[in-house]
Amino acid sequence: MSVELTGRRGAVVRRTAPLVAALAALWILIWMLAGFHYFWPMWPMWAFAGIFALLIARGPLQQFFVAAVAFNVLWAMTGSHYYWAGWPMLGIGLALGAPRLITGRREQQLEERVDELSRTRRGALDVQATELRRIERDLHDGAQARLVALSMKLGRAEDRYAEQPEVSALLREAREDASAAIRELRELARGIAPPVLADRGLEAAVRSLADRTGMEVELHASLARRPTPAVEIAAYFVVAESLTNAAKHAANTRAEVRLDEHGGDLFVEVTDFGPGGADPSGSGLTGLRQRVEALDGQLQVTSPPGVGTQVEAVLPCGW
Amino acid sequence: MRVVIVEDHALLREGMVALLQEHDIEVVAQAEDGPGLLRIVQGHKPDLAICDVRLPPTFTDEGIRAALEARRRHPELAVLVLSQYVEPAYSAELLQEGEGGIGYLLKERVSEVRTFVEAVRRVAAGGTALDREVVSSLVSGRVQQGADGPSQAISALTARERETLELIAQGRTNAAIARELVVTLGAVEKHISNIFSKLDLPTTDDDHRRVLAVLTYLRATAA
Predict the structure, then answer these.
(1) Which of helix, strand or coil describes residue B169?
(2) pLDDT tens across the length of chain A (319 residues)
(3) Subunit contact A213:B146, Cβ cutoff 8 A
């Protein structure tokens, strides 16, 4: 018998199993010391002990021992008199149970640690995304606004000194330098996250991307809620990178983008009908994978040559 | 011409007021947020509202929303939206709000004083001013598509004709286009007649209708 224990329920069973096994062992000991008299609750007790023993057993060897112990115990109990094998059986039970008690606790600690780390990492990424948005906003309200004010003043001066070509040429150069700095700041802010993503959400940002690529892009979006900034930005860059790749390798191709939520996860799917044969270990796709996996998500790239490329990302949202 | 300005940065607001007054454009009122725009438009009945996209309290796109709302309440109001980044989706929303009297420019264009003042006057007079970055992103999008229909027609344009089309779509006059491209007026006229024959658009001498024809085309393919 082999029982799969996965998910949260599995974790609860694994945590409580050693305790139940220990109680059962204690019960056997008391029963044996009391002289093996017939006592009706021992049957449900045995059933519990057996089931938990099977659940915690890992691998065929342990399962064999557990089954052998259970068989011997049943044999002994049907006689309801002294049975020599009782003591060795108890020994074997304890020998098998005790390490489980210890590893069970270690496993429990590890699980709690993993839970805690996943939670704090997610928190850290959310904080980071929020911070980046704040920086983007500060750039907009601070440095960028000041540069615009500066270039406006330079422009007015240039206008006023139009009659003096040397002065006005110098002022024009200064104004153009200020404009170049504004442009660079804008590109920097857009690289962090495009403003339309913060303003209007994922669907609007993806629509804007689709308009800019120049490809024919069909967008199917059904998102009732907005994910956290970290998830939103990751999803945005999955679409951006995939569409950029598609446009780079086949400008005349067509692409489809799907954004769905299902079971607390955000599904992002970008399909193009270009030449395919994309290298999943290329720097762009590797960067995307790291972004997605940092959020406990998964990224899958299928790109058969001659068929097209499909990039699928699943991002847990904790909805 | 009576103008109102909505901008939350005092520095920029004051600069713009001074700049416009230097060119005899009267700024009758100023506000700092979306509701403020609606209030001063209601109170002062200006010809033109110049407004920033990001405004308090949320600093997202309330400038666009307030401008659209003001326009809905006062269809005769011309609106010039300034932004620190161009978003083709926003320009499409503005353009859908009726013909003419609409502008969407990057904020730093204010520093190109004469071009900016020209754009302010044009929009107030019912014309259009679209930032060259918006236009070029829309046009290059169409060019790359190259599938069938109007986009194929666009890709048939020469580089010079495309530049000319971008300038027309920004709302420039022939003389301004000639200056910008450093060519003669005759050369610009020739480019324009080529563009219209390649795009299958009705040729007319009327600047305003010509701009609208291009914008209608851009809007139809941007949707």
Answers:
(1) helix
(2) 444 444 555 566 666 666 766 776 777 777 777 766 665 555 666 666 666 666 666 655 565 566 566 656 665 665 555 556 556 666 766 676 666 666 777 888 888 899 898 888 888 888 888 888 888 888 888 899 999 999 999 999 999 999 999 999 999 999 999 999 999 998 888 888 888 898 889 999 998 888 777 778 899 998 988 999 899 999 999 999 999 888 888 767 789 999 999 888 999 999 998 888 888 888 888 999 999 998 989 999 999 998 889 999 999 987 6
(3) no
Helix axes A165-192, A86-139, angle to 10 degrees: 160
Q: In this structure, what are the phi and psi dihedrals at residue B66, rounded to the nearest 5 degrees? A: -65, -40
Domain ranges of chain A: 7-119, 129-192, 196-316
Contacts of B60 (CB under 8 A, 6+ apart): A198, A199, A200, B54
Q: Domains, chain B, ranges and CATH?
A: 2-130 (3.40.50.2300), 134-222 (3.40.50.2300)
Owner of token pair 């679409």: A239
Q: What is the fold, at CATH topology level, of the domain defined by A196-316? A: Heat Shock Protein 90 (3.30.565)
- Is any Cβ of chain B less than 8 angstroms from the Cβ of A212? yes
Q: DSSP secondary-structure letter at B126?
A: T
Q: Cα torsion at B186, B191, B193, B197 (round to 10°)?
A: 160
Tell me how far apart the alpha carbons of residues B108 and A109 are, in angstroms, rounded to a whole number.
58
Nearest to A310 by CA among A251, A266, A258: A258
Check: complex ipTM more than 0.85: no
Tell me the C-alpha distance between A135 and A159, whole Å.
Answer: 34
Across the interface, whether the CB atoms of A148 and B112 are under 8 A apart is answered: no
Can you tell me which residue has the tokens 């040559």? A305
Q: Do A152 and B12 touch (CB under 8 A)?
A: yes
pTM for the whole structure: 0.68
Q: Is A148 on the interface with B (CB under 8 A)?
A: yes
Among B34, B29, B1, B8, residue whose Cα is nearest residue B17: B29
For A137, which of B59, B143, B144 is closest by C-beta distance?
Answer: B59
Q: What is the nearest CA distance from B57 to chain A, expressed in angstroms?
A: 13
